[in-house]
Every structure is written in structure tokens, then in C-alpha cells.
Amino acid sequence: MEFSEAGYDIATDKWDNNIPDNWDDNIPDKWDDNILDTFKVFSSATKPQKGGLHLFADYDFTATYQMEEEKFPAHVMRKEDMKLKDVVKEHVLPFLPAKSLMKFRAVSKEWDKWIGGPLLAFQQSFLCQSLSGYFYRDSKMGWDPRFISLDHSASGVPNPALHFLPEKVKILSSCNGLLLCQGWDKYYVCNPATQDWKILPLPQYYHGAEPAVVLAFEPSLRNIEVYYHVICAFPLLGQPIIGFEIYSSESNSWKCSSTYCTELENSSLVGGGLYMKGVAYYEAASNEVLAFVVRDELPAIIYLPTIPIGGHGSLTQMEGELCYITAYNESGNVFLIDIYQGVEMSLKRSVSINLGPNRSYTLEYEVLPCVNSDAVVIRVGSFIYLYHPREQKVERTMMSSGGTGLGRKFLPYINSLVTLH
């Protein structure tokens, strides 16, 4: 069923595939196209009674059934009473990206209230984890962020430039639907899908004009309050030592970690990094990765493989594992892809792929970071290619103008309704 092209008729309890093109014109937010379950368990048991089965001979089971039926909670719907719209509401909507959900608010008043409520936002934040697209910016200026959607009909944000924030910002980090942004002297955390945002208090240390910061947020059953962290790794002035300052949304304050890193060959870190499974990762200029376990505040060093001259690599997440993916343009449209995996960064797979005849030859290409995906993502000129190793399939998306040129910073984004507190 293609939900993004269908509407629901409450009167007939059927889906109508002939909805006019402007069916979502009444939705408050204009979206840019370029861009738990609750288990209802009821159990009963009949306990053996003294005196044998003859005690049940005159028992009125019908009256008991009617009595139990009258006691059935009015707000709980039994499985046999559920209609298609109820099944979709409870078992499909939490898996859809935010843009699709905002469109479905026009289905009925009931759906509008449900989609706008906190329970669905909580469910959707950890059930919908697929890559929606990329925010990208110029690494030198970056005050005009843009967004490219990998599925224009389902995923997007209403204001890619983030003009709902009180000042112009550049995006530093992205994690599970939230963005970390930097203004002139402040940090902001926001959800671009809902335009919900929060100003962070000023840190104790100077982080620099291009701070190495990672936004750490993991939706889970234990994270109902949407707590998150911001971890900044910064070099101590005049010393080859990396210190860490950590912001916690639970305490709404910064603290300086007592842990330092002295093992990096080069203390220069390459901008923001990647967060997954409790660890923040920062790429260093010395072909190393600084890993920082957030909970225990422990640093470690991961050594990256050597990239051939002219090749490009990126730290990424693939099938739930930390990976480093490199790409080298062998000739024309043919690229050599190497996938390294784990903290040892051992070679997992090497494959030569042809991106297809529609791409004109260019030397301008790079591997993009990715999250919760089985794909290798490569930007070539103004196109983004997704290569799926299992299916050996290539998908292509065209970027809008202004997205070409090396030096742009791409941040993977997940379309989420997560609410900030």
C-alpha cells in the first residue's frame, strides 16, 4: 500500500486512491520537496475446585461472560473490533518519516490529534531509523544550510535553512533527528522537522570557530525524556593534548572531563564527528580516529587504513557497525569501493562498481557518511549515488544547485518527530 499517495475515507472505512493533488494544502507547515506498540494482553485461568467437576454443572457462564464484557475498559480496543484505520494508526504510523506523518494529519481529527501527541512522537523516534537525506553546508562559511532528500515524497523538512532559529547558524552535527548548530557565540539543538529548538548554556572553555563537537542522542525505551549530550574535543593551547567538555541536557550544564588524550600523532581534529552506540568518533588529520566512550569518559585511538592517492574515505555506520569506506575512481564511471569494519578496521569487502552511463566523467567525488543503512553513499558532482552491496543495485539522486564542490560538509539526517524538553 502506498500511503503517501492515498487517503482514508472515515465514512466507508476504506482508502481512497483518487485524492486530489492539493489534498494537503490545509496543513500548517509547508514542506520543501527538495528536500510501542502498546501490548494489550488479557489472560484468564480456571483454578481447580474441591468437589470435582459437578460444581460447574449449574454455573452460568453466559452471565459471567457478559459481566466481564461490561468490565472491559472503554479506552482499550479489542483486536476483533479494530478496523483498518486503527491498525494503520497503531502499527504503521510509528514507522513512517515525519513528512509523511504531517501529511496524514489531514486524514481526520482523530489522526491529527494522535500524530500531534507525545506518544506517537516517542514511538516514531526509535522505530523510524532509516536515512532520510543530508544537510550540507560550505565548510568555510556554512551560514546557509541546505537539505537534499533521498525520498522527496516521504522525507523532508519545512525549512531547510533553519530560519526558525533566532539567528543564522551553521550545522555542526546530526544525530537521530536532532541537529547541533552554532550561531555567533551560542549552540542550538533543534529538530528541523518540527521546528522545535533549544539554546544551550555557554561552555566553560573556548571551542574555536570550527569546533570538533558530536551530538549524542539515542532514542530508546529508556530515553523517554529525550536526554542527549554534546561532546567537544579540543586541543589544549600549546600542548599535544586533547581535552573533553561535555554538555548534558538532563542537568542543562557543561562539565570538563578529567580524562585527556595524549596518543594522537596530530591533535588537529577534522570538524564534527559521528556518534553510535555510546561512542563519539572524531577524525584526526593524522589518519587516525579519536573514539570517546561517553558514559565512562574513556578515550581510545583507532587507526585508519591508507587511502590511495586521489581516493576519498569517510567514517560511517553500516548495518549497525562502525565502518570506514573508501572510494577510488579507476576509470570513467567505474569506482573501486573498499569497506573496512570494526575497531581494527579490517577489510570487509572490496568491489568495483559502475555508476552507470548517465554520469559524465569528473574527478570531483567523495564518500558521504551514512547511518542506519546498508548502502555506500558517494557524491559525484551534483549527483548522490547509493550502492547496495547485497542487491548490487545503484540508486541516484540529483542535488539542487549550490551542492557541488569539494569542501562542503554533509551530515546524514533521519526524519523524526522527537520532541525536545
TrEMBL record:
Give the SUPFAM superfamilies listed for this entry.
F-box domain
Going by the entry's taxonomy, the superkingdom of the source organism is recorded as: Eukaryota
F-box associated beta-propeller type domain span: 168-285
Entry-linked InterPro entries: At3g26010-like, F-box-assoc_dom_typ1, F-box-assoc_interact_dom, F-box-like_dom_sf
Q: Which residues form the signal peptide?
A: none
Q: Which PANTHER family match?
A: F-BOX DOMAIN-CONTAINING PROTEIN, F-BOX PROTEIN INTERACTION DOMAIN PROTEIN-RELATED
Q: Please state what the protein is called.
A: F-box associated beta-propeller type 1 domain-containing protein
